[in-house]
Every structure is written in structure tokens, then in C-alpha cells.
TrEMBL record, chains A, B, C:
Reaction(s) this enzyme catalyzes, per UniProt: Hydrolysis of terminal non-reducing beta-D-galactose residues in beta-D-galactosides
Residues of the Glycoside hydrolase family 42 N-terminal domain: 14-386
Gene3D superfamilies: 3.40.50.880, Glycosidases, Golgi alpha-mannosidase II
Enzyme class: hydrolase
Name the UniProt record assigns to this protein: Beta-galactosidase
InterPro entries: Beta_galactosidase_C, Beta_galactosidase_Trimer, Class_I_gatase-like, GH, Glyco_hydro_42, Glyco_hydro_42_N, Glyco_hydro_b
Residue ranges constituting the Beta-galactosidase C-terminal domain according to the UniProt record: 617-673
Species lineage: Bacteria, Bacillati, Bacillota, Bacilli, Bacillales
Pfam families named among the record's database cross-references: Glyco_hydro_42, Glyco_hydro_42C, Glyco_hydro_42M
Species of origin: Paenibacillus monticola
GO MF: beta-galactosidase activity
UniProt xrefs under PANTHER family: BETA-GALACTOSIDASE GANA
């Protein structure tokens, strides 16, 4: 449980009453009651308010706010307010603003705007976090700490350059080691003095975001920057913990946000929290995968849904309304996949600046007689009813899908073979193939203990870190099923190619050699032709993007290419290795293939779909104390049915006992408590 | 009359003889005579010529030129030459060049390149204007002053930052007021010292042109910059007026140019002038609307067509030739809509630099035996014949369409609900619906006296300035018909939302409440279904972009949405208010709807089409001394007929008496004098 | 012969063994032997290696490498290593890095990164080249010098600005002459002091790459920058020649690379070399044209193919593999068109940084059992067999096509009439029309002696330099056939329009006057209608882009426009002038027209196709000692036949005697020795 002061699914969200006047505060309180709101995230952007000058702190407004909320039954998730520095600080200490990727020194403006390697910024941020912790640590309304906000963005200042050189000295020890790791003999980049190293940006090695001359340098800068921001987080974390030891500390993450290695970050968060902002046209399985990734950051520990909009965003190109029922549906999707809170951005809409058209529980009209408020209040009531029974329940997947931020960085930075390669998209293809069949998967890191799973899928695992190949071999040896794809096993953690034949360190377990990699032009495709019918798979499937030209070295060929000069060469292989099997998918096939392929593997491993249901139904279970909570979510506008099997289950929202075919209403949700499924 | 020295439609244009040698000057004179050219705009870019150094002025060439032209029968529109500073000034006083929106300090180059808040630039510019006025104020050839050229572009220098702070102090008085106006509590942007305020650009709050974190700051910076350039204009205006009190002063505007609030500027111009550069594929009704806007800047006062090309532009991607007859046709379109001059850029083509492929009366070949010259000379003859009879004639529209630059800025800067919202385009939809039915409209500011009109249309009037809502109420109360649309009435002049329910201050007169605003994805549409047949409207029409979800509060529902979850909710309402009616169009409908809708309202108000004519005919009248000059312009390649009614009218170009059905030749023009239409 | 130490087609390529360890060097040697590799280009990016600090040079590794290679039978093309400066130099002397077109000072990074006007860079570069020449001039393995690498990129530093002013003073003598050449009276840009002149970039006159306010300034800056880099080349050239007089010196060019005037450069290269990187979808005739241009740089002298990839690139968006046989086919295409070397980038793949996915003879797998290596080794064997017989053989075209870099710059920089005008593409249309008919052409400069040719084609020759028009007149007078197109003859070498009627100085020889130029919108087209059937041409053809509206002044009209207001005006004319004819193609016609048109002209001039062959066959001959080597290249995947005529020819690869119809295998090559064709 995140904090047993409030043993239920927390309900509420970001609340910025400093933006309006006291008369509205009373209205806020009244409406929070109506909506069943019991948690408010406050103080997120109040640095300028609570520290109006270098030497002055003024907590009076905050004191009053926390007391007022607590009296009204609202707990607080207290932010440290360091997500944007005050104007006075930027004016007096220009070093706190960033230098951007183009090398331009920024002035005051925006948020997430602080140079993470500015000693001045670090000093002020840690001091503020400490003061807050000292002051509020014992307040009965305090349930969580929220450090800064959506850490993001890189800096290229001289302070960061200096810190980068120190970081490199710690990482590599000697320049000789660094020169080798970065292969600086290429283009005569050998460094003879640490001071010669400059940050990689548009003034040196990079252009157009992810283009770089030196993958090694750019990769290390991403590591360093992810760590610089993490250092800022940790400074505040430690300052808080010095006073407030038993209140959980988090910072709100952003799903697949590319710039930070959240698996590294997760080690320093007491509880994961994240902000979920799908568009009208975001595939629901992509949202599901993102929840699963967030749950996976701390090995399955339930997380906080820190932000979502009750109705619409403002920063998308086209900010469509969430259709009726969708806010509730997506809230339960989060809960189904591990969230123990349902929090909104925001409780009341701003009236000025760039987020005023972002949806809120209390809209600009100011009263409760709105569609949005009614939906919020109904959900509030339901969450009240649910009480604590779902808290701490966990998933029980038998399949792990590997996702790795450093691998993503290396792929994004790669010059060749194809700009169309999108790591998240390729991972999602495998995830979606399971999702569509009502089969659960965990999103896991390369550091995960693989033996927890029957099947491990590692799409486009381009970078193999030390020890990982051995771990895969042990996993397969012991009977596991391992799947990887084209353009995997190519480089080590420094983006240096493992010579001797692709897929490098994975070659042995896969029993193949990949000789060449063909990149297909847009509009081009090839075919993946099954050598023989295999379970759900027969005849042929289209594929595109990249085609590895591989040779079996012990592996069995299951399918081959259908056209072009490599027609007849293997496109899908399986290698028996010890007690297990290792599959190589040499190209990027259509969804129909992946569904059949994974269906076959699940069947072999005895992994059953949770339910039998048509497309549009999402199913997932949370497990607690031996009982399963089966979620059925209907993402369509019409009523759909699912077959939950012969055992009786209790619909904990509706109260009925159900079995066999159950009906899920349009955009509706069933939470069915009963015996463990597929466990 | 702009200047009674030349009581006819002035004919001529920009003339830069300093770019070539004396022998060609004699040729110029000969050809001006052949073409009937009687006005030359000179000295536009001659600063470096007439002030070759800080302390030296040399007017000898200009003296000679003005005398020479006058002797040849050509009057001059004399420019102050400050549209581009000399190289020596940029070299000696770097402060005169601008800092761009990216924060980059510019060097010498281009035009419209001066920092408007540079004291050095201001000093030199005003001094030059004064010297010119002093020297030429009594020259018999002088008919108008032309300050600088196409004022445009913003600056982000330290001088502008300092001036911005002063401007803000004047506007807001206290930082507290400013902090409230900008809602700086959002993201903790509270300013505690004026010096903490920096200009909003890509180094602080803005990106991608119109994207900003703080609408209030960016909106004020647009106001400030429009005003900074206006201050530069006024400095020159005043310097001229000190010597030359009776010659009209203007500067050439650019239609819907976004960066300057021309309604503010117009107050300081003696006569409006503007540069008209449609492309081959610009809708003719958009050009018409732009002329009407320019006429509307000074409440209907005739204006100067200061520039148009006789043949082609050079700066468009594809610079097509004006087809035969089109130059004449578009010249008369300008006259029909209020122009009392027909001036070209340019009289003779440059041979070097970036405008050498811009068309001219005298082409590079140098003689008169060209299609372009022949067409120019024929028009010159006609304008000679027309004499003074059209001068000062005015329009007589019964419909006003509101256009507001600050509203445009606020819409452009808005984060949400849809990037597809284009204010000018939405205004044009209403204008065009009238244009296609031969019904005239004035383009008016929010400061206009509405009681002049039977119908006032205010598309997407997002920003309601103080007093405007009351004015609308009075207008409708007294019997007027008011129309506005979705996303109107939302904010005040500081872009702060009017809480309590959209459309804010307009809610009462419209009798509705708009609860939510849905943004449609590209390709999505909804339907607007009539509740019953109403005049020209029946069944249903498509709509897209944005859909307000509204509730009637006294208004009658005329149409409803046809699909999506808000099917059945009102899409078009009318509220009876006093003696008048207020309509709310809750979405952006197709043209077919808008034509029927406005036809109905005109019928109700007894507003008749000027003529009955097929598509392709443009009709408009100018009125003088109780007589009407009806212009019929055929924009197609074939002959077309129109019915002008039973009263006899005189074709003042052809000399015939006409009534009933008249024929307008391909790309031809009729100007028919007769009794007032629709008055 | 490039160097008679190695009297055969050189085979090998770029080799960077400093990037790996000694054990692999032995493998390299073994595999070079297997592949028949006899030339390695070394030391290209080794500056940091051989000069580890300002005062230290260390040639030990290089000594060893050259000796080792020589012992293994591999000669060296020795680079001067100045294509990228060392990090220590950028750190100690920041002036060596560039300022970019946006005015941003760069830091250390990338390659081709040196400020060409930095005295420090120039000093170090020349010194290094001299030291290398002194040390290795007598090494028996040395066969060529390779200065720097792919010279490219412009600089906008203060050093370059100062050098630009000096260059301008030398070019123009007085400011008055400069002001006239740049037409600075336009926009009042008159310079009164040399110091007022700044470099044209995004901070002054330019934007978006080729957009500029002053074509004259930007054109001169391109000349100046091309020359600045050439000066750097020449410094090294001279430093080498001081010691090493008899070894040819080159630098690797890049085909139609826009930024450098290679015709100027070619005067200072002993032998042309270039890097050929077509994509999977590059038209083979465009590659052919580029080879011909490179051959034309030194009037037909054979050149070095310095780089091509054995398999795939890494820097294209989609890096497809060269299909089997294509590497060999394209290698022979180079030889057929004048290459006396076949060299690769690269002999062994890097394992790190941005080129690690660029193909190599030795792939990452490290052994010889790859498709790529096998194909390389087979070609190595063939080239061994061919020996010296093709060396120094030359082309024998009777048609010259003019290409001019300054003309390209002027067209690229032009503001109007159409952004769709692409000079290289328009030239290629004419080249391709001949290529498709198996008719050879030379790519020639405007300085070429035209009397070598029966037909000279000058597509879009917008800029006419002094003396060129007279040369064309003399050529036609004497019986030559000259062809030019729309938008030709417009400006002089300063981009100043030749007044008095387009096409200016070419008007007399063409016998026409072009009155106007219409730019067609995308999707628009016109028709070119033959006045009567003429040889291969009849009826009508589409045309687009630009349409000149011309009047014959003595010329005969062969075709007219079919639509729009200029229907019936001439679209194709021919003027008899002395003994010859001058054609004007007033628009950009479809390929079908150009093939017929050029077929007619060739027929008139007795120019025969080399062979009769279907589409997909490329034919070209090299001539030596009165014998012809006819190359037939089949670019398709199927077998094709060609008719080589009745004379017997020897297939020098296969050894057979052939005549009449010969079969060229899929992606195959025949080299048929025999009597001169078409000579």
C-alpha cells in the first residue's frame, strides 16, 4: 500500500489554488466532496510563491492550503516545486538556465528549464526540498512526496560539459580506454586531454535530434544527462528523507519518454508514478503496454496513475474530447494494469497561459452540472465502494518482453540501415499480438530474472550488455523460449560491433549467422513463406523494413523469403538449445503472422488466453491473496460478450455472480473476482 | 480626394531610376507618356544614396529627378527612404540591426531590417524625414508622402526588452497587476522585479512561430512590437507634418499581414495605402475581402492601391503571368472596392538582386512593344477618360463583418483546441458566402459603430474587449441581427478566460451555454441537420474543425448535430433579444450552408443582391452624390450575362445605356452609373 | 597512365587499419591477396595519430603500414590526413573550427570541419603535407597522393569575412565597380567602405540555403568559398610537389556536388578522382552522366574511381544492398566511362562510429566466405586479366553537353520564376534522351573548344560569361548545331540581366526574342504541337515547368504551344546561322519529345547509335590506339540482346569473337574490342 493513511484507490489530482482567489477555494472544497476526491497534488509550480527571493521563504499559503484540504478530507501529494525555477533566480544567477542542443543560452521561460549541473540550482532545489520535508513531515494530511515534475530535457552548458568530463573519467579511468570505447581513431578524433572533449550537440557531433557522427559519444551523453537529472532527483530525495522517512517519494514519469533511462531511475523511487496522455487515435494496446512498462519498472509493484485528463488535452494538434465513458474506461485500464491511484491533471482549469484548454474536473463554467464532472463524480463513488480490495494486487504474466532504454538510444542514433526503424513500434508489434489474444505480458528490463517467465521476447535487441547473452543461454538451456529479431546482437554497451558474425553474442543460442541486412525502400515488401503448416501459421505473410540474410548454423528453418535475390533464404528459424528453444525472426512481419506465431508458442508452453473474447475487449487480471480480479474492458461503442469459463466469478462493481458468457456494455468495465486464471 | 493637384485615379507606381543611368531616364519619360503614367513613387530605398555618411546629405539626384518628372507631367509620391538603413549605419552603430526571434544578432542585410527601439535608428530616421519634408514640401509635383516601406518584422534586442518593460509599466502600473494579467502563478512565473521580464522568443517562452507558454506575454509583445513600429512611423509622420501640413501621409500596408494591428495604425495615416499581390490561385473573393478590409481601416474612406504587379511576381514559388486582361480586371476590382489610385510595383524592372524577375510596366527588353506595356497603356487611357467622377465615391454595405488583429493573435497563440483553426479563413467563409450572392459587406473593427448595419457577423470572436459585449447587446436590442460562432466569447483582452460558462460575455445575448468544445481530427466531419426547412436551408450539411456542445438558455434551436455522441445537440441557435436576433453557429459548416443561412437573414432584413448573375461575376457599387457606380467584373474566360434590373444605367467606359440583361466580356468590366441599388 | 608502377586498373580502396589491432592486419593481408587488391588509400583521417600535439610528429605506424602493404603487393594512395583536424588543435586554436551559415561558432566535431581561411589551419595543413611528401616521396609503394578528403562546406567566420573583402578588392578594384556588379542601389545597399561588407548568411542576406536578397553577393561568396577551399588544396599540392614531383596528386571529388566549381579545381589536379554513391533508385543514366562530367573535368582524361561501396551505404535513409552482380556492373560502368581505377570505401568495416554500417570488402564477420567478398574477389581476378589494355583509352563523343557550376549557383539563387527548376535535372533530361538511344555525349565546360563537336547542347544556360556568345556564334557559323532552352542567355557573370530582350547575347544566333516567361503551377502542363511531321517527331507532346513566350526574328517555327493564352506561339524554333543551326526549346518537354528531337539532329549530322539495343542496355566505347572497346552493360535482371553490327569484335573478358546479335546476361557486361564505331 502506498500509504496506509488512505487505504483505497486514491482519487484526485493536480490542484493549483494559488492561481485563483479564496472565494473559489470554498467551491473547490464543496465540489471535491461531491466528486469523492481525496487526494490533491499541490505545490507543483509554487517555487516563486514560497521562495519569493533568495533569502525569503514563505510557507503561509501552503500551511493554510494543506490544513484546509485535510479538514475537508483531502490528503496531499506534496510536490517540491522545483520543476520550474523562479524568475528572480534566472535573473540573478543566469547559470541556472540551460544551453540548448543548438548551443543557445536560454533566458527565463518555460518549465523543466533548470541546468541540472548548475551548482546554484542544485543548492537551491535541495534546500527547498529539505525545508518542505522538515515542515510538513508530520502533517496528518501528507500521503506522498512528489519531487519536481516530469523531469526532462538535456542541457549543453559549460557546467554540464565539465561534469561530463568528470563522469567520463569515472566511467573510463583513462583516455586510452575512452578512445577505444568511442573508436576515436575513426575520423582522427583521438583525445589526448580530457579538456579536449566537448558536449555532442549541433555545434559539434550531432544534428537533427538523433543524428550523430559518434554514436559512442552521443550514447554516453544520454547516459550522463539521464544521470544528471537523476542526481537532481536524488538530491531532493535525500533532503526529504533526512526528515521524512516514512512517506513514499516519487516523481512523475512519462511512459516511453526517450531521454531518461527509467529502469535506472526506478531504483531510486519508492513508488512509480506516471502521466498517461493518449490521443483519440492512440491504439489502446499501446496504452496498455505503457502501463505494463511502468509496472515493470519496479518488478511488478503497483504504481500511481499521477496524471490523466478527465476530458481533453490542449497540447495535441487536435484536442478531441474523451467520449462519454472513456475517462472511466481508461481509468480502469490503468487500475487493471497495476495502478493504485487515479489522479487527474487537473482538478480546476487555469484561466490563463498555455494549459487553460486542458480538461479539468472543475471546468471553466465552475459548477458541477457538466458531463465531465458527472462522470468524475460517478467514478469517485465507485472507487469509494471498491475500498482497499484491489490495492497491492499484482500481475501474473508468463511472458516477458524486454525493453531497454540504452538499446533504444543506440538504435535511434544508428546511422543505417534504415530510418524507418522505430524501436517502440517494433516492440509494440509483439506486445499487440499477445494483447489481441488476451494473453498477458510483463515489460521487463535486461536486468530482470528471466527464469520467472516461460517465454521471453526481445525485439530488435541491438545492444547486448555484459552478461546478458549468458543469461539468455541459461534461460533457454533450462527450458525457456527466447525470441529475438533482425538487427539484434550487433553491438556491445559502447555501440561497438561484436565482430565474427551477427548476431554476435546471441549467435550461439540462436544457431544462425546473419550475413547481410537489406533495408527496404518505403512501399517495398517481401514475403515470409512457411516451410510447412505450423499450428496457426500456414502459407505466406508480408514483411518489410529490414531483411536479415541468414544462414542456419544448427537452427531449423521454419519459413523463408518469398521474393528478391534472397528468395529461399531463411526468414524464421528455431534453435533447440538445452531444454529450450530460441527463435529468430529475420524481418518485420505483418500482425497476422505475429499473432499466429505467438499463439503457437503459447500453446506449446501451455499459456492460455485469460478469456475468449472478440476484438475490442481487453482482458487482464490482478492477483492478490490467491484471488484473481479479472478486468474486462470494452473499448468499442457497442456491447460485446466474452466467455470467462465455467467457474463462477463475482462482479465487484455490479455485485452479480457470473460465469460462461458475460456481456460487457459499450465502453464498459467488469471486474470479476474469482479463482486464479492461467496461473 | 487624396490630393486635388491630380483629380483623377492616379496611375503609375514605384520608380527607382537611381538603379540605372541617365540615358534610360529619357526613355522612361517617353514611355510614361505613352502609358498615361502620372504618379511615380520614388526614393523608397535611397537612404544610402541621399545620406552617404552620418554627416552628409546629398539631395542633388533627388532634386533633379523630381523636377524632371514634374516637367514630364508625373507627380511624385515621395518616400522617406527609411525602409532599409545604409550599410555604414549598421557598421558604425550595430544597434540599428535587429535580434531575431531565435535570439540571433543580425548583421547588415536585407530591408525592413532596423531595430525599431534603437535610439540611433529613430534619430536618423526622423531627421531624414524632416529634411525631406523641409526641402520638398512646396514642390508642385509632390502629391503624397510615403513613410518607410511595408513596416514589418519583430525585434528581440536588449533595446526592445528595455522598451518593453517601460511599455508594461505604463500598461499595468504595478507588477501585481501584470502578474494577474499574465496569470504568472501558472508554472511559478511570478515577477518580483521589472528587470526579471525578458522578451518572449525561442530563448524564453516561444517556439515554432506562434507557440508560446504564456499567451499573455506573447500577446503583449505583439501589441508592443506593433506599437514600436508604429512609433517609428509616427516619428517620421510628425517630422513631416512639422513642415508639410497639407500633403497626405501614408505608408503601404499589406492586407491581412499578421504582425501589425492596422486598425491602430490607420488612426495615424492620412490615407490608407496597400500592396496587393494575389497569386494565380488566390480566390478572387479573398482579394475582394482584403480590399474591403483596407477600406474599412478608416471607416470606408477610399484608399490607395500602392502596389500591384503588371504581370508576375518573383517571390512566389511559381510566378505565373497574369493572363491577358487580368491586370486591368484586378485594377478595377481595387477601384470598385474603394481604391482611388492604381499603382504598380514597378515602372521599370531592376537588372540585379532579388526583384529582377518581378514584372514591371517597362520590361527588361526596354521598349513599349510588349503585351504588358500595351495592357498598361490601354488602362492608362481609360483612367484618363474616367477623370474624377469615381473619386471619393464610397460603399454602402448593410452588413458588417468584424475582423480584429488582437483576436487573431490570441487565436494564433492559443494552445488548443485545434491547430487547424485559421481565423482569416473562417472569416473568409462568411464573406465569401455573401460575395457569391452579390451582397456587399464592410470589414469592420470591434470599435465600429454597429448601428450602421442591419447585420453584424463576428466569426470566431474569441476575445471580447471591454465594452464590446454591451455594444452587441445594444445593437441587437435595437433590432440588429448578430451572428457569431463556436469558440467565441472565451477570453478577455488579456487572454484570460471569462469563467462562468462559454461564450462568456456573449452568453446573455446569445441565450446559450457552451459546455464543451470538440476538436475533429483531419478527415473527420459531423453533420448539421436542420430542425425544419427554413428558407434556402433544408435537410443537412457537413461541418468540421470544431464542434461546440451547447445548451439553449432561451435560444431557439434551428439545427442539431447529426452524428457522434453529441448527435441531437444544438448546432445552430437563434435568440430573440429586444427587437433583434442573435445567432450562434456552433461549428464550421460547408459553404452551401453558409450561403443559405446568410441568404435567409438578408431576405429577412430586406437586403437584396445588387444584381442577379452567375458565378464568376463580381458585383459591387461605389456611391457618390446620390449616384451609384455599379461594377460588374467577369473573372472567367468566357462571356457572362447579368441582370441589372429595369432601370437604365450608363456604361461609363463604353458609353452605352443599358438595362435588363447585360453582357460582361471574358475578363471584362462594366461600370454602370445609375440609381442607387439596395440603399 | 596514372602511375606506371602499376600498369593495370587499380583495385582496392580506403583502408584504416589504425582502427584495429595488429592481429587483424595479417588477416587483412591474406584477404587482400585473395581479392586481388593492389592499392590501398591510407592515412585519410590520421592527423591526430601522426601529429599527437603541436610539436610532435610520429610516423612510425605509417612507416610500418606502408612497408607492410608494399611487401604484400599493395601500393598506396597516400592521403595527407587533413580532412579532419585533431581535437587538440580545436582546443588550443578555436579559430580552426568553422562558423556555420547560421552564424554559429562550431566546436570540435565531425570532419571537413576546418575554417579554410584560418592561418593556423593552413599552416599546420601545409606543413603536414610537406612532411609526408618529404618522408615518403621515394617509397616504391607510393603511387598517388590524396589531398585531404571530399573538400566541402562553407565557412562564415570573421577570418573568412576578412579574406572575402580582400578577394573582392582583387576582383573589383574599386567599390564603385563592386556596387555596380551587385546592383547595390537596389534596397539602398551601397557600400562606401570595404569594411561595411559582411558575409552573406542567415544573419545578413540569406535564408533557407539558396534564398538570398542579393544574388550578386551570394554568387561571389560561392566563388570565394570554392576558391578558399581550393587555396587550401593548392597549399598542400605545392607542399607535396616541393618534394615529390613525379607522383600524381589528386583529391576525391563528388560528382555534381554543388558547392565547388570543379572545372576550376580540375586545373590544379594531376588526375581527377571521385566517389560514386548511387542509391538503389538512382537512374543509371544519371550515374553515367556523372562519370562523363568527371571525365570532362580534364577534357576527357581518364579518372580514378576513388570510392564506391561493395554492398550498401549507411548514410542514406534506406540503405539497400547492391543486388548480386551490381557492384561488378557499376564498376565496369565507371571503367566504360573513363575510370582507370576501381576503388572501394572501404576495405574493412569499422566497428564504431557513424560509418560502421557502410559496406566493405571485409565485413564485420571478418572472413572471406561472404557474398560481398566473393563478388569482390571475382572482379579482382578479371581486372588482373584485363591488364593495361584499357588504360588511357578515351571517349569519342560528337556531342557536347554544357554544364557550368556558376550557372547552377545563379539558377539556385534566383528569386523566380519557379522553385521547381532544377538545373541538374534539366541537363539530365537531354543527356538521358541520348543515353536511351545509345548515343554518347561529353559533359563539357563553357570554356571547352566547341569545334570538337557536331552538336552542342546547353540546357538552361541562364548565365552567359564574357566571350561565350561569340564562341557559340562562331561554332554555328562554321556548321555546328547548337541547342539551348527557355531561361537561357538572361544574365552576365554577375547575375545582371542583359537588357534589350531575352535571350540576351544569344538572341542573334537563335533568331528569336523571348518576351515573357510563364511559370506553371505543380500539376499544370501545356502542349508542344509540331507544325509538321519532322523525322521521329509528329503530333504533340506535353511540357511543363516554364514556358517562354517567344517571337521569331528570323528563326523558323517547328512547334507551337497547344493551350493557354499563348496557344499558337512558338515552342520550338531553329535558326539558320552561317553554315549551322541554332535551336531554341522554349519549354521543358517530356522525354518522348527530347528523344525524337535529338534523334533527328543526330540523323542530320550523321551521328549513329553505337549499337541497336533495347532499353536496359547501356553502351559506350573507349578508344585507344585506333581500336575501340565497346562496353555493353545490362542493367536489368533478365538477359538482353544487342546488335553490334557486321564487323567481328573480340569479347576481352570471355575471349570469344562476336558479331551481329550478342547476348548480354542479366546484370552482365561485355567489353568488345574492334574497329572504331561512329568515328
Amino acid at each position: 500500500m502506498i500509504n496506509d493513511k488512505l487505504p483505497k484507490i486514491w482519487y484526485g489530482g493536480d490542484y493549483n489554488p494559488e492561481q485563483w482567489e479564496a472565494p473559489e477555494w470554498a467551491e473547490d472544497e464543496r465540489m471535491f466532496k461531491l466528486a469523492g476526491i481525496d487526494v490533491a497534488t499541490i505545490n507543483v509550480f509554487s517555487w516563486a510563491l514560497i521562495q519569493p527571493s533568495e533569502d525569503t521563504y514563505d510557507f503561509s499559503t501552503l500551511d493554510e492550503l494543506i490544513d484546509r484540504l485535510y479538514k475537508n478530507g483531502t490528503y496531499v501529494c506534496l510536490a517540491t516545486a522545483t520543476g520550474a525555477h523562479p524568475a528572480w533566480m534566472a535573473h540573478r544567477y543566469p547559470e541556472v538556465t540551460r544551453v540548448d542542443v543548438q548551443g543557445r543560452k536560454r533566458k527565463f521561460g518555460g518549465r523543466h528549464n533548470s541546468n541540472p549541473n548548475s551548482p546554484v540550482f542544485r543548492k537551491f532545489a535541495a534546500k527547498l526540498a529539505g525545508k518542505l520535508a522538515e515542515r510538513y513531515k508530520d502533517h496528518p494530511g501528507l500521503v506522498a512526496w512528489h519531487v519536481s515534475n516530469e523531469f526532462s530535457g538535456y542541457d549543453y552548458s559549460e557546467q554540464s560539459a565539465a561534469a561530463f568530463r568528470v563522469w567520463l573519467q569515472e566511467r573510463y579511468g583513462t583516455l586510452d580506454t575512452l578512445n577505444k570505447a568511442w573508436n576515436t581513431r575513426f575520423w582522427g578524433h583521438t583525445f589526448y586531454d580530457w579538456e579536449e572533449i566537448v558536449v555532442p550537440n549541433e555545434l559539434s557531433e550531432e544534428w537533427n535530434g538523433n543524428r550523430t557522427n559518434f554514436q559512442g559519444i552521443s550514447l554516453d551523453y544520454r547516459r550522463f544527462m539521464s544521470n544528471s537529472l537523476l542526481e537532481c532527483y536524488k538530491l531532493e530525495y535525500n533532503a526529504i528523507k533526512e526528515h521524512s522517512t516514512n512517506i513514499p517519494v516519487t516523481t512523475n514519469l512519462m511512459g516511453f519518454y526517450p531521454e531518461l533511462d527509467y529502469f535506472e531511475w526506478a531504483k531510486h523511487l519508492d513508488v512509480i508514478s506516471w502521466d498517461n496522455y493518449p490521443s483519440l487515435d492512440t491504439p489502446v494496446s499501446l496504452t496498455a503496454m505503457t502501463h505494463d512498462l511502468m509496472r515493470g519498472l519496479k518488478n511488478g509493484q503497483p504504481f500511481m496513475l499521477m496524471e490523466q485528463t478527465p476530458s481533453q488535452q490542449n497540447w495535441q494538434p487536435y484536442n478531441s474530447l474523451k467520449r462519454p465513458g472513456v475517462m472511466r474506461l481508461w481509468s480502469y485500464q490503468a487500475v487493471a494494469r497495476g495502478a493504485d491511484t487515479v489522479l487527474f491533471f487537473q482538478l480546476r482549469r487555469s484561466i490563463g497561459a498555455c494549459e487553460k484548454y486542458h480538461g479539468a474536473v472543475i471546468e471553466h463554467v465552475g459548477h458541477e452540472h457538466t458531463r465531465v464532472f458527472r462522470e468524475c463524480a460517478e467514478l469517485g463513488k465507485e472507487l469509494e465502494q471498491l475500498g482497499s480490495q484491489l490495492l497491492d494486487a499484482r500481475g501474473q504474466a508468463e511472458i516477458g518482453i524486454i525493453y531497454d532504454w540504452e538499446n533504444r538510444w543506440a538504435l535511434d542514433l544508428s546511422s543505417g540501415p534504415s530510418v524507418a526503424l522505430d524501436y517502440v513500434n517494433e516492440v509494440h508489434k509483439y506486445y499487440d499480438a499477445l494483447y489481441q489474444q488476451n494473453i498477458e505480458a510483463d515489460m521487463i528490463s535486461v536486468e530482470e530474472n528471466l527464469s520467472k517467465y516461460k517465454i521471453v521476447i526481445a525485439p530488435v535487441l541491438y545492444m547486448i550488455k555484459p552478461g546478458f547473452a549468458a543469461k539468455v543461454e541459461a534461460f533457454v538451456q533450462a527450458g525457456g523460449t527466447f525470441i529475438t529479431t533482425y538487427f539484434s546482437g550487433i553491438v556491445n554497451e559502447n555501440d561497438l560491433v561484436t565482430v565474427g558474425g551477427y548476431p554476435g553474442e546471441l549467435r550461439k543460442v540462436l544457431g544462425i549467422w546473419s550475413e547481410e541486412i537489406d533495408a527496404l525502400l518505403p512501399g517495398m515488401s517481401n514475403e515470409l513463406v512457411m516451410n510447412k503448416e505450423w499450428g496457426a501459421l500456414s502459407t505466406s505473410y508480408t514483411c518489410d523494413l529490414l531483411c536479415d540474410l541468414i544462414h542456419p548454423e544448427g537452427a531449423e528453418v521454419l519459413a523463408q523469403y518469398g521474393t528478391d535475390f534472397y528468395k529461399g533464404m531463411p526468414a524464421l528459424t528455431v534453435n533447440s538449445f538445452g531444454e529450450g528453444k530460441a527463435y529468430y525472426v529475420a524481418t518485420s512481419p505483418e500482425a497476422r503472422f505475429l499473432q499466429g506465431f505467438l499463439a503457437n508458442l503459447c500453446a506449446e508452453q501451455g499459456i492460455q488466453p485469460l478469456v475468449s473474447a472478440p476484438a475490442g475487449i481487453e482482458s487482464v487480471q490482478r492477483v492478490k491473496d490467491g484471488m484473481s480480479y479479472l478486468f474486462l474492458l470494452n473499448h468499442t461503442e457497442g456491447e460485446l460478450s466474452a466467455d470467462i469459463g465455467t467457474a463462477v466469478r463475482t462482479d465487484i462493481l455490479g455485485g452479480e455472480e457470473l460465469k460462461g458468457t458475460v456481456v460487457v456494455p459499450s465502453r464498459g468495465v467488469l471486474i470479476l473476482k474469482g479463482a486464479l486464471l492461467n496461473g
